[in-house]
Amino acid sequence: MRFSGLRVLTEGLTGNRGWRPHWRDPDPRPEYDIVIIGGGGHGLSTAYYLAREHGLSNIAVLEKGYIGGGNVGRNTTIVRANYGLPGNSEFYSHSLKLWEGLEQELNYNVMMSQRGVLNLCHSDGQRDAFARRANAMVNQGDDAILLDRAGVRRLVPYLDFDNIRFPIYGGLYHPRGGTARHDAVAWGYARGADGRGVDIVQNCEVTGIDIDNGRVTGVQTSRGAIRAKKVGIVVAGRSGQVAAMAGMRLPVESHILQAFVTEGLKPVIDHVVTFGMGHFYISQSDKGGLVFGGDLDFYASYAQRGNLPMQEHVMEAAMTLMPVIGKARVLRSWGGIMDMSPDGSPIIDRTHIDGLYLNCGWCYGGFKAVPASGNCFAHLIAQDRPHPAATRFRLDRFRTGVGLMDEEGTGAQHNLH
Ligand SMILES: Cc1cc2nc3c(=O)[nH]c(=O)nc-3n(C[C@H](O)[C@H](O)[C@H](O)COP(=O)(O)OP(=O)(O)OC[C@H]3O[C@@H](n4cnc5c(N)ncnc54)[C@H](O)[C@@H]3O)c2cc1C
């Protein structure tokens, strides 16, 4: 226990000089048992569970920038388990259960707030699809409530229910969904992994992957060569680039997703509300800012910033759903690089190179996956067999076409939907 009310008070009165860094800042050693490339949410949670559940500690997480500088610190923080297809259902259900115990597990306030996620529907067809999804969620053991128009109005009276193009028919409500503070999740896992002996090495870019006779032997980095028996690639939007260092061409395209936050307002939105037809979703942060976003910028890019046409589109969708938002002033917008897979579902798998493992394809929904992704990837790396909750996230489904999980029904090129 490093925090207490008394400690916060004492530090506040004495210039906050007594706090210790949450994790060490070690130089990389010449050799590790396991090297994790990428210090985002997924890389840090992988290292944490490798140490916590598999008793391994000779591990380095190599991060080219700083912890929390990637998507884990750029997302809109929505956590949910409202998937419909086998493969995704059990995985996200596993993740939500880990989320529910995460603060106790890490002894860190990740501000997990199960305020409920409401998906709106605007046609009979969409309502039918939500009914199917709700049944799948309930069958998986998660919670789902199908709301009619009056039920939605009771929850979120401030929406435009009679919009000519998108009248609200009802909604799918998922009470256990909600939000968590994104960078606190990275910091909590970083502290937990560090405390179990993992070296978290920041400002250390991997520039090459060493392979000898079909087996990985280490990595080249901006801070020298590091030998390793096993290497995990967990670099989200940079997956294609890093896998190419091992001669692999991934079925993944990198696209930009933007988000926006307004000035702080008094509490107005109690839930996460999504308007899928208009490509818009919104929640309110604990600081009061309305946090919202929309669709991808429709071009492949490694820039961590988006463009004006999508900003205009998102604002338009916001005004369509919730005209009152026109009174709020937008403070900031930013972008992150999404690793879009063709079926919109992720990959957690071995590669054809011994000792080299791959975790990617999270598209725009990988924050809610952080606990389960790390938990399942650690299991795969430590035991060389998939975790029961992640057996279907196979890389070869894109070669064979068998086992695709096209959750949104957008066809074979999800990245271009
Ligand atoms: C605007 C926006 C909104 C989103 N909203 C949500 C949401 O509400 N809910 C949800 O579930 N998901 C959401 N997402 C998606 C989610 O943020 C990502 O899927 C997830 O964070 C990706 O995993 P990560 O945290 O490991 O990625 P990152 O934090 O990007 O981690 C990857 C790390 O790898 C590092 N790296 C890359 N190349 C190298 C290299 N060569 N050497 C060393 N390190 C390297 C990067 O610097 C980076 O820190 C959103 C994303 C964005 C951008």
TrEMBL record:
Keyword field: Cytoplasm, FAD, Flavoprotein, FMN, Nucleotide-binding, Oxidoreductase
Location in the cell: Cytoplasm
Presence of keyword Flavoprotein: yes
SUPFAM superfamilies in alphabetical order: FAD-linked reductases, C-terminal domain (SSF54373), FAD/NAD(P)-binding domain (SSF51905)
Record domain Rhodanese: where: 34-78
Highest taxon listed in the record's lineage: Bacteria
Catalytic reaction equation(s): sarcosine + (6S)-5,6,7,8-tetrahydrofolate + O2 = (6R)-5,10-methylene-5,6,7,8-tetrahydrofolate + glycine + H2O2; sarcosine + O2 + H2O = formaldehyde + glycine + H2O2
Broad enzyme group: oxidoreductase
A matching Pfam family: DAO
GO terms classed as biological process: tetrahydrofolate metabolic process
Leader sequence segment: none
Molecular function (Gene Ontology), one example: nucleotide binding
PROSITE patterns per record: RHODANESE_3
Cofactors: FAD; FMN
GO cellular component, as recorded: cytoplasm
InterPro entries in UniProt: FAD-dep_OxRdtase, FAD/NAD-bd_sf, Rhodanese-like_dom, SoxB
The enzyme's E.C. designation: 1.5.3.24
Keyword Cytoplasm found: yes
Record-stated family: Belongs to the SoxB family.
Protein name: Sarcosine oxidase subunit beta
Taxonomic lineage of the native organism: Bacteria, Pseudomonadati, Pseudomonadota, Alphaproteobacteria, Rhodobacterales
